[in-house]
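hey m, so remember when u said the tokens were messed up on ur end? i reran from scratch. heres the input so u can diff it against urs
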Amino acid sequence: MSSIESLLRSATLPESPSARLDAEWLLAAALGKPTSYLRTWPEREVPDDCEARFMADLARRRQGEPIAYILGRQGFWSLDLEVAPHTLIPRPDTELLVETALQLVPATARDVLDLGTGTGAIALALANDRPAWSVIGVDRIAEAVALATRNAERLKLPNVRFFESQWFSALGGQRYSLIVSNPPYIRARDPHLLQGDLRFEPDSALVAGEDGLDDIRQIISSAPDYLLQDGWLVLEHGYDQAHEVRQLLMDRGFADAQSRTDLGGHERVTLGSWS
């Protein structure tokens, strides 16, 4: 058996800028302990079965597989979410969309829609912070809907529901005070698709035509039929797409089209009001 510290020292991860932290997460998961345990008891010996799991997971990480897929978990907002390879990994960038949505609509009873929900991250964050809201999350992939539902059940959030729908196709005539989406927005030939975590994530959740705007166009075109008067549409998009998304909103008749800037100074969320 090896000690915790010796395993961590030998855990080389050349592709990762956070190699030590990655190794700590993997070893803590193998042991069924928090990462603080590793720092408190670095001399403790690791059981053979736990070491074997750690080494197997480390090999996957060396191949570039995202930590979230290896562990099956990812933190988002204040939530711990189950993730799987048929959904995008929730990212801190998307928390800007959540922050924006929470600022737009009162905390009183409202109907809210999340399009392309994936793990349910956005819908769950909104439902968690706004108990009076009734939140619907839809996704065209049945496995994603099942995953999001499991997350809601584990988090005990009764005010959110998930079901299968290709954007608005299965929604009927209901209208919403707020529609949010983090749709695919990467250009089909973007070289980033061959780098890092994106190599392992589903192209169908990433790519949207030659300019990356195909799905955003479709959502903006259809959204007015599902928004209440003065309802808001809020979209995440690429760092260089804000101008085009604002123009699409204005061309469709949305008012007050505006963009919000992330901590890196990039306009990553654009919104408009329907009146």
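this time it looks ok to me. Residues 48-62 form the longest helix (15 residues). if urs says something different then somethings off w ur setup not the seq
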